[in-house]
Please model this.
Amino acid sequence: MKINNLFLLENYLHFLSIEKGLSNNTVDSYLGDINKFFIFLINDLKIEVDNIQDINKEYLLKYFKKINTDGISKRSQARYIASLKSYFKFLIREGIIKKNPTDIIDSPKKDRKLPDYLTVSEIDKLLDIVNIKSLLGYRDRTMLEIIYGAGLRVSELLALNTEDINIELGFIRCYGKGNKERIIPIGEIALDFLKSYLENIRPVILKNIKSKVLFLNSRGKPMSRQGFFKILVKYGKKAGIKKHLSPHTLRHSFATHLLENGADLRSVQEMLGHADIATTEIYTHLSMKQIKKVYDKTHPRA
Model:
C-alpha cells in the first residue's frame, strides 16, 4: 500500500507544533530541512518516492555525501541530520515504518570556533580608560576587574551577593550552570577595588534601599545583563578596541592568559566551572599560538 508522503509530513508538523510545542520558526526549519532531502531525491537521484518505506540508507548516505562536498558547514549538516532523524523517529512511533534508515547516520562533529579574546595590553587599556573618580565609574571598574579576574560568566557576576565575598581570604563564591557552586580566588588588584567598593561606593549607590546584591545600577537596583553589556561596549569604544567585545570575551581572555602564563588545564577547568575538560581544551589552541610566536621570536634557528 502506498502512503501519501504529504499527509505524513502534515501529521509530523502537527506533532511538532502541538505535542512538542515548538515555535512556528522551529517547525519551519524542520520542514525546510526535510524538503531539502526530498528535493535531492528528485533532482539528483531522479527518484520519485511514492512510499516512504522505500527510502533506504543508501539514499541518505548519498545525500549526506553531497551536502558534505557542497561545503555546507558542520553545524548545518548536523541540523539536517537531526531533522531527518526526528522525522523518521516519528514514523517509527506511528508504525508507518519498521526500520529507521537514519540509525546508521552519525552527526558530524561541529566546527570548534576559537573564541575571541583580548591581549593583556588590551585588557589594560579597557580597565585604565574607566574614570574611577566617579561613583559609577568606580563601580564599573570593580565589575570589570572581577569578571576578568575570576573568569565569570555575566550571569554569575550579576548574581553575586555581598555574602559571596570573602575579603580576608581573597575568594568569591559563585553558582554556575546547574546551580553548581565554585570558589574562585581573586587577585590583589581586584580585591582592593572590591573592598573599597563595598566600603565606600556601594552604600552611596544603595542609599536607603536594602539589598544583598553586590552590583547595582544607578537607582540602587540589581544591575541587568543589558546594563552591563552597554557599560562594557562603551569602555571598549573609548579604549579603541576593534575586536568583538562581550562579557564572554573577558572570560575567554581570563582563561587564555592563565594558560599562556603556565597554568595547568585542570586548574583552569575548575575556575571556569566546566563539567568536561574537553570544553576547556579549546583554549590550548590559543595558548599554542602564543608559544609558537615566542619560539619563532627567540629560538636561534627558528
In short: The chain has 13 helices and three strands.
